[in-house]
Amino acid sequence: MLLRCTICGASNQLPASKLADALRCSRCRQIVPPPAHSLAATDAELAEITRDAPWPVLLDFWSPQEASGRDGAQEVEKFARRHQGHVLVLRVNIAQAPNAQVRFGVQRLPTFLLVDHGREIRRLVGLQSADQLESVLRAA
Ligand SMILES: [Zn+2]
Question: Which residue, 5, 72, 84, 96, is most buried by CB atoms nearer than 10 A?
Answer without folding.
Answer: 72
